[in-house]
Amino acid sequence: MMKISKTLITTLQQLIDGESIAYSTLRKDFAETLLAEGLLTVQTHGSRRTFRAIDTIALKNFIQIHYEELRTLGDNDLKSYATRSEQAAETGNSKLVMVRSCPGFPVNSYEPITCSLSGNEFVINPPESSFVFIDNWQQFAIPERVIVVGIENMENFRMIRHQRKLFESVLGDVPLLFVSRYPQSKDLRNWLMGIPNKYVHFGDFDLAGIHIFLTEFYKYLGNRSEFLVPSDIEQRLAKGSPVRYNKQHGKYCALRTDIQYLQLLIDLINKYHRGYDQEGYID
Fold first, then answer.
1. Percent of the chain that is helix, strand, coil (3-state, to 5)
2. Between β-strands 140-141 and 147-151, what pairing exists: parallel, antiparallel or unpaired?
3. pLDDT digits over 75-111, tens only?
4. To 5 degrees, how large is the angle CA 260–CA 156–CA 61?
5. Are 82 and 9 spatial neighbours (Cβ–Cβ below 8 Å)?
6. How far is CA 44 from CA 47, 147, 208, in A?
7. Euclidean distance between the first and final Cα of the chain, in Å?
8. Distance (Å, rounded) from C-alpha 195 to C-alpha 87?
């Protein structure tokens, strides 16, 4: 269990509330992660530096999704929450590690896919602007010819029909089942490890996005997984944003891989000193 101090909880709560905090106040590992994700900005006041959240709602959602011990941060009374953290640190009986009331992951498709859920036939065909949440993922099975496409961003996940040309241009005319990495847990990865289907990861075209693919998916799925790279990605990167690249470079400057096509993408990102968000592919 990650050690969560009262000071850290108070500091994160201040950021969620829209306040600025002293640069030295935020624990280094949290600062590096939140900066790399583009959730914090550094403000300079003479020789003094402070952190401030770029988007307080996005910050709160990221913290709650990625840190089980902080799952309810921002939703509960801060004083009582901090007290529970101190008790956990002292006794080892953590009330901060929440029981997951909704395991599983969301799925989507733009054409009907006949699957099996709990031994029964189940057709995935949600109308536009909706998706299906699979709870009993241990008994969820799909045809082997279906390619699973993992999508990082929820906006892209909801609007798959607006990206159909992209998927068909890269993957061809094959049945696709789209899955979302959020809410982040090991359920999706464990399910992928238990099925034979090909997995394609569609994330942001930046160093952090590639790192996520390599460490959270390729590490476990091997050559059965690949990173989706559109044919026009160099043109897109050339006019992408340098902000995300500059924030991520310190942490991921040494990122390398022996996967040739992916190393070429890394080289392009470093060549242009820019990243490109996957939302740009929504028509």
1. 45, 20, 35
2. unpaired
3. 544 444 444 444 444 444 444 343 445 688 999 999 9
4. 100
5. yes
6. 7, 48, 25
7. 42
8. 41
**Residue where the block lists tokens 């600062």:** 31
CA-angle at 163, arms to 159 and 167, nearest 5°:
130
SS (H, E, C) 125-175: CCCCCCCEEECCHHHEECCCCCEEEEECCHHHHHCHHHHHHHHHHHHCCCC
Q: Per the structure block, which two tokens stand in for 249?
A: 């470079």
What is the rounded CA–CA span in Å between residue 236 and residue 37?
20
Q: Which two tokens stand for residue 226?
A: 């690949």
Tokens of 143: 């045809």
> Amino acid identity, residue 64?
Q
Tokens representing residue 155 in the block: 């906006």
Buried b (16+ CB within 10 A) or exposed e, 14-29: bbbeeebbeeebbbee
Cα 141 to Cα 195: distance, rounded to the nearest angstrom:
8
Tell if the pTM clears 0.70, that is, is over it.
no
When pLDDT is cut at 50, 70 and 90, the band that residue 113 belongs to is very high
